[in-house]
Design a protein that fits this description.
52% of the residues lie in helices and 23% in strands. By secondary structure, the protein is α+β, with helices and mostly antiparallel strands. It has a domain of 114 residues: Ribosomal protein L22/L17 (Ribosomal Protein L22, Chain A). A hairpin with a 5-residue loop joins β3 and β4. Strands 1-5-2 form a 3-stranded antiparallel beta sheet. Strands 3-4 form a two-stranded antiparallel ribbon. It has 5 helices and 5 strands.
Length: 176
């Protein structure tokens, strides 16, 4: 039997919002604040930024984090959200709405309402990937054989007991 090779794949999540009704130049000012930061820090920054677009960018960032979690669940990996950081984020120009404004003497002035496409990508830090792969390998090694099966069964029983205790505590709070 050949030994298993450990793959160091980074889990990342991508989200975009299209046709957002704000000038790309204004959106880029806010996106530049979060590029390269940890996801939690970026959300904190967006929460206290006094720009209208910050709320929309925060929604896109939360969606990217949720996409990364979903991707990890489907791959059967464990993902610590605290290890995610904003790897890429940018704002592209969307289509412009051309409008006319009436002007004196039967003329019209043309103006444009700009739209934006916002893209945010979060990725797992390289050290976190290595730690996650090592932990998964250690758990696989520990669950081998009869002793591993017993450990696994004990672990699931302990988790079920914790969940039952939480449910009982919740029920007690509900009665009060």
């Amino acid at each position: 039997m050949a030994p298993e090779t450990l793959t160091h794949t980074s889990i990342d999540g991508l989200a975009n919002a299209r046709f957002i009704r704000v000038s790309p130049q204004k959106a880029r000012l806010v996106v530049d604040l979060i590029r390269g930061h940890r996801a939690a820090d970026a959300l904190q920054t967006l929460q206290f930024t006094k720009k209208r677009i910050a709320r929309e960018i925060a929604k896109v960032l939360r969606s990217a984090i949720a996409n990364a979690e979903h991707k990890a669940d489907e791959a059967g990996e464990s993902l610590d959200v605290d290890t995610l950081y904003v790897s890429r984020c940018f704002v592209n120009e969307g289509p412009r709405w051309k409008r006319l404004r009436t002007a004196p003497m039967g003329r019209a002035f043309r103006y444009q309402k700009r739209t934006s496409h916002i893209v945010v990508e979060v990725a797992e830090h390289a050290r976190a990937v290595e730690d996650r792969v090592k932990a998964a390998a250690a758990e696989r090694e520990a669950s081998k054989g009869i002793k591993g099966a017993v450990r696994k069964a004990r672990k699931t029983l302990e988790e079920k007991a914790k969940q039952a205790q939480k449910a009982r505590d919740k029920a007690k709070k509900g009665k009060k």
